[in-house]
Amino acid sequence: MTTPKKRQLKCPHCKKPVLKEGNAFFPFCSEQCQLIDLGQWLDGGYTVPSTDSPPSPEDSPEDN
To answer: How far is Cα 38 from Cα 30, in angstroms, rounded to an integer?
Structure first.
């Protein structure tokens, strides 16, 4: 029998090869890449584009 190949993953930030075993920062290659990604989340750098516009005041139900 052959041994299964380990899947080579890449760091989402710098694209360096990353191994899961023994890596406390997985899926990132280092603490630096992990913190850069966290900063992008906190600054709103990851957004989903939307074509929806916020409801206008005329569209809201009236209070009776």
So the answer is: 13
What span, in angstroms and rounded, lies between the C-alpha atoms of 25 and 33? 9
Q: How many other CB atoms are there within 10 angstroms of residue 18's CB atom?
A: 19
| pTM, 2 dp | 0.61
Distance CA(48)–CA(44), nearest Å, equals 10
Q: Express each pLDDT in 32-59 by its tens digit.
A: 999 999 999 999 888 888 887 777 777 6
